[in-house]
Amino acid sequence: MEPVKKHLTAVLRVGLGALFLYAGVIKIINPAAFAGSVANYQILPYAGNYLVAAILPWVEVICGVLLVTGWRARSAAALVALMNAFFIVLLFSTVVRGLDIDCGCFKQGGEKTTAWTAIFRDTMLLVAAVFVYRKGTK
Amino acid sequence: MKTDVKRLAAEMAAIVLIAAAIGIAFNHRLLLEVFRGQESQAPAAAATATPSTPAAAATPLPLGLMQVKELVDTGEAIIIDARDRETFRKGHIRGAVPLPLGEAEGLISPFAERTPKDRLLVVYCGGYDCHDSRLLGEKLLAAGFGQVFIYEGGFPEWRDAGHPVAMGGE
Question: Which residue of B has its CA nearest to A77?
Answer without folding.
Answer: B12
